[in-house]
Specification:
This is Carboxymuconolactone decarboxylase family protein. It comes from Flavobacterium calami. InterPro entries: AhpD-like (IPR029032), AhpD_core (IPR004675), CMD-like (IPR003779). Pfam families: CMD. By secondary structure, the protein is mainly alpha-helical. Helices cover about 70% and strands about 0% of the residues. The radius of gyration is 15 Å and the shape is globular.
Length: about 140
């Protein structure tokens, strides 16, 4: 791949704004399991190898099992995820594939399972990882 733009060097203020959002996410009440499931699944949907590599490693460090990490891409057919985790994964997919919109069914299911603050934190985490995926893919960051 040819050399591509390095956003932190060219637009450091914008990059810092994204970093600040990531710092906010790290202070939320979301469990590390929920954060990493969101980050892994969105990165899988987007095809971001750099972020998949990073967040599967982070999930392992947080105690996530290999089985659950492997099954994240096929979570609907796996019995290893809780009802709450399935709601988060469904919402993650629909927000990531936003051109299909977020269905009332998926949104209301998540709203039923989580209070408003936690739901807001879930949505902001999904939006943030999608931004990182787009930055990594566009600028050619590679998994090593």
């Amino acid at each position: 791949m040819n050399s591509r733009i390095v956003i932190p060097q060219v637009a450091p203020e914008a990059y810092q704004a994204l970093m600040n959002l990531e710092k906010y996410i790290s202070t939320t009440s979301l469990t590390s399991t929920h954060k990493e499931l969101i980050k892994i699944r969105a990165s899988q949907v987007n095809g971001c190898a750099f972020c998949i590599n990073m967040h599967t490693a982070d999930a392992r460090k947080s105690g996530e099992t290999e089985q659950r990490i492997y099954l994240t891409s096929a979570w609907r057919e796996a019995d290893v995820f809780t009802e709450e985790e399935k709601a988060i994964l469904a919402l993650t997919e629909q927000v990531t594939l936003i051109s299909n919109h977020v269905s009332d069914e998926v949104y209301q299911n998540a709203a039923r399972l989580f209070d408003e603050k936690y739901l807001a934190e879930i949505i902001l985490t999904i939006i943030t990882i999608n931004s990182w995926n787009r930055l990594a893919i566009t600028t050619g960051l590679r998994a090593v």
